[in-house]
Amino acid sequence: MVSVPSEHGKESFFSFGLPKVLSLGASLYLKKFMKEIVVVEDNTEIREVIEFVLQSDHYSVRLFENIKSFRQYLQDNQPAVIVLDIMLPDGNGLEECRTLKGHRSTKNIPVVLMSANTIRNTIEAGAATFISKPFDITDFKQKVEQYVDFA
User: Fold this and answer.
1) Under a CB-based contact definition with an 8 Å cutoff, are residues 41 and 47 in contact?
2) How far is the first Cα of the chain from the last one, in angstroms, to the nearest whole number?
3) How much of the chain is in helix, strand and coil states, percent to nearest 5?
4) Which element (helix H / strand E) includes 88?
5) Residue 149 CB neighbour total at 10 angstroms
6) What is the pLDDT along the chain (151 residues), one digit of tens a residue?
7) How far is residue 7's CA from residue 127's CA, in Å, rounded to a whole number?
8) CA–CA dist 63, 14 (Å, integer)
9) CA 81 – CA 127 distance, rounded (Å)
């Protein structure tokens, strides 16, 4: 409650400050409604470009440079979409996609596979779509956004 002493017929002035940091409740509320996209890509420059592009469109973005850290995160989190490179230092994105599609908790998460090499088995592995690197930013955004809308 805010109260301001005043006199009839005279102006009253008051001011207040708001904290710059969101309260925990507000932060959780925003996170619930922001679509989260997970990106697993070992190339730092590509990760940073993807992060910039997706955050510019107001998505929550989580970045991983390897499958091991991605799997740890996935144990307690459910992203809207996973963007997964095929050639990673600690595993194969095609195999990881097959693993994700084989688990009850992750089988419905759209997976967007990407690689510098044309891979024919991406749909067979359960991927929603494939993006060839180097990629066009507009094309990348369109492909990812079409699956975020269904999440």
Assistant:
1) yes
2) 40
3) 35, 20, 45
4) strand 87-88
5) 10
6) 455 566 776 766 655 555 555 555 555 445 445 789 999 999 999 999 999 999 998 899 999 999 999 999 999 999 999 999 999 999 999 999 999 999 999 999 999 999 988 777 777 789 999 999 999 999 999 999 999 866 6
7) 69
8) 45
9) 11
C-alpha span between 60 and 135 (Å, rounded):
21
- Between CA 86 and CA 105 the distance in angstroms is 21
Query: Structural domains in the chain?
Result: 35-148 (3.40.50.2300)
- The residue among 56, 124, 59, 102 whose CA lies nearest residue 113 is 124
State the pLDDT at residue 70.
97
* List of residues 6+ apart from 19 with CB closer than 8 A: none
Q: Write the burial class of residue 10 (CB in 10 Å: 0-12 exposed, 13-18 middle, 19+ buried).
A: exposed
Q: Which of 92, 25, 24, 139 is nearest to 129 (CA)?
A: 139
Q: What is the DSSP letter of 59?
A: -
Task: Count CA within 13 A, CB hemisphere, residue 146.
Answer: 10
Q: Are 72 and 49 in contact (CB under 8 A)?
A: no
